[in-house]
Design a protein that fits this description.
The chain is mainly β. The protein is 9% helix and 45% strand. The chain is built from three helices and 24 strands. The strands form five sheets. Strands 4, 5, 6, 7, 8, 9, 10 and 11 form an eight-stranded antiparallel sheet that branches. A four-stranded antiparallel sheet has the order 3-2-1-24, with no helix packed on it. It has a four-stranded antiparallel sheet with strand order 12-13-14-15. It is globular and about 50 Å long.
Length: 331
Amino acid sequence: MRRSVSSGVAVMALVFCLFALTAHAASDGTSKVPESRGAAGDVLVYERQGWIWSCDGEGGNQKRLIRGARPGLSADGRLIAFFRPSEGKNSEEMSDLWIYDAKSAAERRIASALFAASSPVWSGQGAWVAFLARDARALTRIVVLAADGSGLRVPLREGDEGAGFLCALSITPEDSLLVHDMSNAYWVDPAGGVLKSVPLEKIMGSLATGVTSSDTFSVCPTDETVLVFSHAVPGTALFEKIMHEPSSALSLHDSWVGVGKNMQITPQDVTAFDPVWSRDGKRIYFIGYKDTQAADAELFRVLRVDRFGSGLKELVPGEDVAVGAGSAGAR
């Protein structure tokens, strides 16, 4: 179960290539990321029971910040974009987009009356935010606007350039936007238009036959050839007894290695989805739970795993996690 809303064998060649590409990205200086201080230097924001919380990448320094949902965190860990229900007679299911400044604790509304369909994502310099929304005809679209609410634009709509129902928005190291329509992945220019389209089968291999609108693709901040994605897998006997549906896992894909050459990085007894990278590209945070927790009243947890599947750790209860580097919630 995801929100209401066979573990694979690691291929040594894939591991070698992923390490090599990491070293190359670090040496050529093309990816501008903060110096790594490990998980303790990561800032996480997440939703829990109608509130937005923050913590560090070890699950420490937990702070309840503001009421809201679907938080998106700027790369420096200072600004949180989030949604609150709109007020008024005709506001059912509509949301307003707000910005919260973790340094000053100030908040401001920058857009109103939206049918939001994803968490916001930030450009690398925090100049603009983007999110998925539905229009008056219930068709999906990407919406981009400046951090002060100006300059609203729609770089891609459902139906444009052959795109279907748009799902699972994320940001790439080059500040392009990544979505999929359960058939193809689209790298989208925030100014407008598709930069490239890749059939999901080229990324996922045979796993593409089971892709859903909830499956997320997230590009590594330090190496645009590497991404992590969620996908359906058989659950354990305990999971299937409780949930009566497939589970979900995370796998790494390296486009340099080739089609369908993926490495599963989460174990079979953990349901895993909504992956996001640490800014240094060494850790992946995600939402999930162990099969022994599948009947818990508060089901979803924020977890962390190292890039190649080691160091799995449960951090805090919550969902809709976003990651930056800095001091969200600092006073």
